[in-house]
Amino acid sequence: MRPRLADAVRPRLVGPVRPRLVGLVRPRLVGPVLVTTAALVLAGCGSGDSSSAASAAKLSVKSAYMPQPVTDSLAAGFLVIRNDGGKADELTSVTSDIAQDVTVHETDGQSMQEIKGLKVPADGELVLKSGGNHLMFENLKRKPKEGETVSLRLNFTKSKAITVEMPVKSATYQPTSGR
How many domains does one find in the chain? Predict the structure, then answer.
């Protein structure tokens, strides 16, 4: 009997034949692979959030006051913004119900000018004081009196806005802390 052509082309297998698991993962490897993958994913998620939170700006406000205005249309405001975080931020705008506009002013020698914002340094303070950088409440809706409190909102580039209750002091008030 003569071999058929199809049989001649077929390779001859020598020894026992084991089926191959092509494209399948062996069951005993599934557990360790899943555990390792999960550990890597969780480690990656945790590290990014904690380092950025630790270095973000952490702002607080102290020593806020407004001298009782001497005119019906203008008032000044002073305060200290403390940043206990590792990244700087910037005071970009201020709003208040008592004034049509609240602007940020920079004082350089004897001249002052409105500016778009002031930096709050990392691990430092932005001091707004009489004779220095300060807030100007313009076009007052009413003239605040000593003993009242004025509410204002400080807006920043990165941090959430901070609402401040600013007490109105006498027109000649000088803070004892030097600020």
Answer: 1
For residue 98, what are the domain limits?
A: 59-169
Q: Name, in order, each residue with C-beta under 8 angstroms of 164's C-beta and a sequence gap of 6 or more.
A: 61, 64, 79, 151, 152, 153, 154
Mean pLDDT value across the chain: 82
User: How far from chain centre, in Å, is Cα 160?
Assistant: 7
pLDDT of residue 40: 47
DSSP state letter for 172: T
CATH code at position 152: 2.60.40.1890
In a domain, 24, yes or no: no
Side chain identity, residue 37: T
What size, in residues, is the chain?
179
Domain-embedded: residue 38: no
Residue 153 included in any domain: yes
Range with the largest mean pLDDT of 18-22, 31-35, 113-117, 174-178: 113-117
Q: Please provide residue 70's backbone torsions phi and psi, each rounded to the nearest 5 degrees.
A: -95, -15
Please give the model's pTM, rounded to 2 decimal places.
0.69
Assign 3-class secondary structure to 111-163. Answer: EEEEECCEEECCCEEEEECCCCCEEEEEEECCCCCCCCEEEEEEEECCCCCEE
Of 168 and 12, the structure prediction assigns the larger pLDDT to 168
